[in-house]
Every structure is written in structure tokens, then in C-alpha cells.
Design brief:
By secondary structure, the protein is mostly helical. The chain has 4 helices and no strands. The protein has one domain (about 15-134): Four Helix Bundle (Hemerythrin (Met), subunit A) (Up-down Bundle), CATH 1.20.120.50. It is about 75% helix and about 0% strand. Helix 1 packs antiparallel against helix 4 and helix 3 (about 75-100) runs antiparallel to helix 4. Bound molecules: fe (ii) ion (2 copies).
């Protein structure tokens, strides 16, 4: 898989505050990528990974609050996937520490961003937009 962490407008889901967060997430992922040759013990890498984890949690919470607000019917489905991503992120971060290799984590990040954002988040965005403008 090719590593492409540049923003592309096809990631837009049309819900402004969430689009801003997705851009920020990609930005942090790019920072992680730029540190790929550093040792796992490097303070900069550790700090960036911590930021990624925290920001991801904040982002998932934001989406979950919006879904609750508009009684999104696929709320549970999204929430389950968020939980899975969180758990996997945690495991991958542990793995980076023990194996000193960040490549698998990077592939996971891209898969998550492209997959989840363009599928589940996009469909959620259509629903929220529809309910907001009514
Ligand atoms: Fe998202
Ligand atoms: Fe999501």
C-alpha cells in the first residue's frame, strides 16, 4: 500500500466541524510519518503518538455526540468501529515500543483514515446534514 497522507477533498463529509477534525487527524498522522526513522524511545515520537491517541479519542467523542444529538440510526455501528480502532491503536502503539518499527502502525492509520472516513463517516455526514437543514 502506498503511503499517502495528503488531504484530499474526497474525504469531506460535509459536516464542517468534523471535516476540520479529520484534517487535523491527518496532520498528526503526517507528523507521525515524518518521525518514522526515529527510535521508538524518541521523546518526539512518543509525544506525537500520545497526541494522536488523545485527538482520536476527542474526535470519536465529537462524532458520537453529534450522532446522539440527531438520533442517528447507525450510532451503535459507528461506536463499535470507533472502539475497535481505539483498541487496535493501543495495541499497535505497544508494538511500536517492543519492535521499534512504525511501518505497521502507519499502514493501520491510513487504512483507518481512508476506510472509516470514506465509508461510515461519509454516510453519517449525509444523515446529519439532512437533519440539520430541516
Ligand atoms: Fe471520523
Ligand atoms: Fe467515525
Amino acid at each position: 500500500m502506498e503511503i499517502d497522507l495528503e488531504w484530499n477533498d474526497h474525504y469531506l463529509i460535509g459536516v464542517e466541524e468534523i471535516d476540520v477534525q479529520h484534517k487535523m487527524l491527518l496532520k498528526i498522522m503526517r507528523q507521525v510519518f515524518s518521525l518514522k526513522d526515529q527510535e521508538a524511545s524518541s521523546p518526539e515520537l512518543k509525544k506525537t503518538l500520545r497526541e494522536l491517541k488523545k485527538y482520536a479519542q476527542f474526535h470519536f467523542k465529537s462524532e458520537e455526540m453529534l450522532m446522539e444529538l440527531y438520533s442517528y440510526p447507525k450510532y451503535e455501528d459507528q461506536k463499535t468501529e470507533h472502539k475497535l480502532i481505539n483498541a487496535k491503536l493501543k495495541t499497535m502503539m505497544e508494538q511500536v515500543k517492543t519492535e521499534n518499527d512504525i511501518s505497521e502502525l502507519l499502514y493501520f492509520l491510513i487504512e483507518w483514515f481512508v476506510g472509516h472516513t470514506r465509508d461510515k463517516d461519509r454516510i453519517m455526514g449525509i444523515f446529519i446534514n439532512k437533519n440539520r437543514s430541516e
